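Cross-check.
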Amino acid sequence: MYAALRSHCAQDYPAEYEIVFSVNDARDPAVQVVNKLIAEFPDRKIRLVVCERRLGANGKISSLAQLAPLAKHDILLVNDSDILVAPDYLRTVMTELSRTGLGLVTCLYRGIPGAGLWSKLEALGISTDFMPGVVAAQQIERGMRFGLGSTLAFRRGDLEKIGGFAAITDYLADDYELGRRIAQLGSRVELSSQVVATHLPAYDFRGFFSHQLRWARTVRASRPGGYFGLLLTFTLPWALAVLLICPGITATFLFAVAVIARFVMAGASTTILLGDRKALRWLWLLPVRDLLAVVIWFAGCFGRQIIWRGERFTLERGKLIPS
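Predicted model, tokenized:
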């Protein structure tokens, strides 16, 4: 957390900017990290706000709804506490947001795995499935209609037009909703040229599966058509199924082509799209990741229960209902 938050304080940015951190409890261990940064960067405008009120089921958006009126500037940039950015990140994103007709800038991200197999599998999924899926959606829909929590940069005026953060305090996919609603104003949503990073926990299997299932059910609730279309994208499982059902030269050839195509796409995604050559060392886990993805997809088709930040919710048309 310290490295991620510090990267936002150490920006090479020519104009003034402020950073407003929030916690829900003054006893949160993150308070010590923020206080350390305030002492380390005395010339940077940094504030810590304790947001004890709960305005909706989504605690993050509840805090943002309380922070927005306190923010000094008319351009807001929202980031999670685990996002690591480059020194020129803010300058690049603000330059991109200044383009005519642009309402929101968001960023692709790569996962930095913790120790253990399950963390590496999640990082691999981000790099070879989720991020390519974002780019594919942008191409298919001829523009983005959603944002990613790795970066949400927008104008205060547009936020007010969509009803402010208060309008999405009960939604799980708040980044998706914010981008979708700003796009509905007629403004463009675009990917930044910046790629950021997120640190992943050292999951055990239960933690990994719970997190993946929450993601799956979130996508299903937000974009049901796209979610069921994902079934057509499982290259290796489909090729393996053909080989097992109809063994022979043709099926073997098709399987080999599918394997090569999958690994080439995964390698291109990690190196060219995300600039992450370190992830190449985990590509041998791709067949395991792809077979698990089918299991998670099927599990995501059923049920509406999720666990998020230690709380249990039921998803109802994308909204969080406390269980």
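The chain has a mean pLDDT of 90. The first strand starts at residue 18 and ends at 23. Passed to J.P. for a second look.
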